[in-house]
Amino acid sequence: MGRKEKIARSVVRAIVNNGADKRSNSPLALILALFSAFFSLYQLILRKVRPADFANLRRQHWDVSDDDYVQSFQADDDRSGEQALKAVGDMGFSGSTFYSTADQKYLVKSVPRHSEHSFFSEDLLTPYVQHMATNPRSLLVRICDFLAVSGPSIGRVFRSAPSHHIVMDNIMYGREEAKRQGEADWENWDLKPTSYFYPERDIAGGALTSEATKDQLADEFHDKITLRREQAEDFFSSLEADTKLLAEHNAVDYSLFLVRMRTPQQAAASMPPPTESTIGPTDSSPRPPSPPTWRTGVTSADGKYIFRASILDFFWAKHKVQPRVMTLLVKLWNLLVVKHGPMSITTTPDEYRERFLKLCRGIVEIKED
């Protein structure tokens, strides 16, 4: 079993039975399990942080039953775990690992940086829980669980495996089924203000870094989301409330994850005529439930697309040690080498919020009735 599979098993075990190994209650088995855990490099023992708060959000505010939630983390053969999570994506700039549940409903992202997981657990967790409980239309990604390493181990000392993970709602849920039905693939963008100083892009014209590295920078959306006025006002209102919370707690560098798919009518018009082998129910395209939200899908005013949106990656806080060091380094660079201005991770929370809201407003076009 490889590194990724062992990390996945640790996550599944924490979700399904709260990190406890229930295979045996004998003292010898317990001693062997503890011994194995201590010398494990990758399969760390994880515990749920504030499980009652996240369970309350899932049950009372997001209408997710415990059985359905746990079922997403169980493989069909009911094994303990490596089949239940699939590694997806790449490591990114933060060194994070990403997994998706087999049913695609949830994503698991590691949070390896101490400055980020300590910010969430010590500063943002309580305000986040309160905000999500009182703002049902929030665009902040739904975090369903927060996992942290428990007990000493070799892997924890050498940081060979992530010590913290978040389990979050996957707003790309349904994409694989749509592809199986022959529909056009969904488009997605990870948007943040691009006018900041990005060393990978701006030093020596980007010649010092690879294209793969530069491709991991923020995307640009060269189009418009056409909305009715009430849709736009709902979108902007949610953005204002969510970013106000983040700015109050010094968060910067968050992004808007935007998903676009064709409406059933547009998808049907673009598909080739059915053959005898494909005749059958085809109306499987995603339809926003009533009332539609940006998490489940909002139909554009022109009837062409369904959009989903969520605010991600809000764990970088200016008052933590690593961000403060980065801010100092960028200031020295601007003073001693060439002035580029702040990076998105070194600017002030209020200034970042202003540019982020301007970006979000700039991609919306209002269609008057």
Can you describe this structure?
Residues 267-295 are annotated as: Disordered. InterPro entries: PInositol-4-P-4/5-kinase_C_sf, PInositol-4-P-4/5-kinase_core, PInositol-4-P-5-kinase_N, PInositol-4/5-P-5/4-kinase. Helix 10 (229-248) packs antiparallel against helix 13 (349-362). The strands form 4 sheets. The chain has a 6-stranded antiparallel beta sheet with strand order 1-5-6-4-3-2. A 4-stranded antiparallel beta sheet has the order 7-10-12-11. A two-stranded parallel sheet has the order 8-14. The chain starts with a helix and ends with a strand. The radius of gyration is 22 Å and the shape is globular. Helix content is 38%, strand content 17%. It has 369 residues and is an alpha+beta fold. It has 2 domains: 3-169, Phosphatidylinositol Phosphate Kinase II Beta; 176-271 and 283-367, 2-Layer Sandwich (Phosphatidylinositol Phosphate Kinase Iibeta, Chain: A, domain 2), CATH 3.30.810. It has 13 helices and 14 strands. Strand 11 (298-299) and strand 12 (305-312) form a beta hairpin.
Concise synopsis of the structure shown:
This protein has 369 residues and is α+β, with helices and mostly antiparallel strands.
